[in-house]
Design a protein that fits this description.
Layout: H1 2-17, H2 22-27, E1 33-37, H3 44-60, E2 64-68, H4 75-82, E3 90-95, H5 96-101, E4 116-125, E5 127-132, H6 140-149, E6 155-158, H7 165-177, E7 182-185, H8 189-197, E8 203-207, H9 208-216, E9 220-225, E10 251-258, H10 263-278, H11 280-288, E11 292-293, H12 298-318
Helix pairs in contact: 1-10
Length: about 325
């Protein structure tokens, strides 16, 4: 209880400093908090939301409910949050790479920069380039050779749908290596992994949280990681960039709230994310999942989104990516 009073007192002080209402901060939270995950259960965003939610609930004394609202590469759930009351009780946790790609592909029902306030960039993890055990390749060179010998034969599981970060990763890889494969959209990484393990799909780029357990169990073959260089937790696994120069994709997980959410609440939740990801047990869990915690502030997070939007639009334009 003492810890909670300290947190609330800090929030109240922040509100006063910004000319807000101290009553709001002193009362917060007075009811359950909802974290919308715009993908099915089991994926990276879902695992992180539940981990953060449990720790936040223990500290703040209110339930933190994770609400999965999948569809359209995260757009449906994000739109729900954008249109929610900015009272500090609704957030969205998602691969924000999808938010920076979608404006180039969809006519969105919200404005990414105007309708959200970035709260915290939670962390980054590279995509894993994996293939089904049925695909007769063991490295990138063999994959490219096999794909060129069998154009259009391989089915690429586009986890989180067409226009998602994983789909864009597949498109970039295919165009950079001169191969062709078929893209099959999924609502989220968990179902894509199920079909890949079952041999119904052949290849994908997907987040480490949802993918690596299947690699460890021997059900999928890991070919490479999509980070700029080899990932510390997988030192024997090459980076795609070693074969395809400057190749970089991954999962940037971020927490956002509806625009207009009280600054004191945003600051409190940001502080909670930093506290939680620094806890020894959480840090160990993130590390085991291949996730690197971020210390990016809300302002830095907003600047990251602003910089990513035109960059992703350029990739979509140059790669001639369309939703058909």
């Amino acid at each position: 209880m003492q810890t909670r009073r300290v947190v609330l007192a800090a929030a109240a002080a922040a509100t006063l400093a910004l000319g807000g209402s101290p009553a709001l901060a002193q009362a917060y939270p007075s009811k359950p908090i909802r974290i919308v995950v715009p993908f099915p259960a089991g994926g990276t965003s879902d695992v992180l939301a539940r981990l953060l939610g449990q720790k936040m609930s223990e500290k703040l004394g209110q339930p933190v409910v994770v609400d999965n609202k999948a569809g359209n590469a995260g757009t449906i759930g994000a739109d729900m949050v954008a249109k929610s009351a900015p009272d500090g009780y609704t957030f969205v946790l998602m691969d924000v790479g999808n938010l920076t790609i979608s404006p180039a592909l969809y006519k969105l029902p919200f404005d990414v920069q105007k309708d959200f306030v970035p709260v915290a960039m939670v962390g980054y993890s590279p995509h894993l380039l994996v293939v089904s055990s049925k695909v007769p390749v063991n490295n990138i060179a063999e994959l490219v050779k096999y794909a060129k010998a069998n154009p259009g034969k391989l089915n690429f599981a586009a986890a989180a749908g067409m226009g998602s970060a994983t789909h864009i990763a597949g498109v970039q890889f295919a165009r950079r290596t001169g191969i062709e494969w078929n893209y099959v959209p999924y609502k989220g990484g968990a179902q894509a992994m199920t079909d890949l393990v079952g041999g119904h799909m052949d290849v994908t780029f997907n987040g480490m949280v949802a993918t690596y357990p299947h690699v460890k169990s021997g059900k999928l073959k890991l070919l490479a990681v999509s980070s700029a260089k080899r990932w510390s937790e997988l030192p024997d696994t090459p980076a795609v960039a070693e074969s395809v120069p400057q190749f970089l994709t991954g999962s940037w997980q971020g927490l956002l709230a509806p625009a207009g959410t009280p600054r004191a609440v945003v600051d409190l939740v940001y502080a909670e994310v930093q506290r939680i990801t620094a806890l020894p047990d959480v840090s160990e869990k993130l590390q085991s999942l291949g996730l690197e915690a971020s210390r990016m502030t809300g302002a830095e997070f907003a600047a990251w989104i602003k910089a990513e939007l035109p960059e992703m639009a350029q990739i979509v334009r140059e790669e001639k990516i369309t939703l058909q």
